[in-house]
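Below: protein 1.
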Amino acid sequence: MSESAQSAVAKHVSFERERGVHEVHLRQDVAHIVVMVSGSEGERMEKIQRVFHVLADNQIPIFFIKLHRSVVTFAVEGEHLDATESALRPLGWEMVVRCGLALVSIHASSMRDLTGSIVTIADAFQEVGARLYGVSDSHTSIQCLIDAEHSREALEKLKQIFHLEAENA
């Protein structure tokens, strides 16, 4: 075997990320919308579908979607807030809008395997005075809606805790 072939065999190459948090991202100017969809089970489902159809028909992108027994909640970027309110107002259903939020996304290759991560994140928010309004997760991330006023401090605290470089923001 040639020397270069032996060298190639001896190298370990990995295509997977190391376990642990590898990125924290901040999205500013987010609003959280709560739309009341009470009624019988069938009525609630029709109302939820109507909300989604109205938003889709108006080309309004939504995220952080949660379905509850009597409400549907979601987030929109601030630039879409006026269009969202204008599109949903004709439905005549009660709606609550919370502005001035930020979405913090914490990414890891296998987030659900990291024990205690949500406690660590919540403690970081508490330490900088950032109120937590909602949490969502996937197999690779945890997303948190917090007040935008403390979002920069929260981002820096998370980067410190998870030992991330400044360019990962």
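Below: protein 2.
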Amino acid sequence: MATEQVVTKAPGMVPDEQKFEPRSKGISTARKKKPKELAVITECCTGCAGSPACVEYCPVEDCMFWVPDEDNPPFGRIQIDPLQCIGCKKCLSKGPDGSFLDGCPWDAIVMVDIAEVEKEVGPMSY
């Protein structure tokens, strides 16, 4: 008798059917601890004309994803699922002392204290 392995994806706040490509790829297990900060996309996000630079650096499955602009197709922007974000900062463009890294070229991603995010989305247990 064969044993069937069930793969359970980590829960997110945004339903999968609202997450369009491009989407981040990587680990799909639930984060092990609550991060101190989460990445938040600002209104400066341009979506990089459908080829966002930030998404490829995110190491978490479906954490970053495309949201189409329904009023202005084919334009859109990137969003971050707060329950998926591990606070790794790999999507950011600025490193120590303002050095440029590989993430967002428009500085459209900021790290926000988890308490501030929880004011918007509610308490996060992990």
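The first strand starts at residue 20 and ends at 23.
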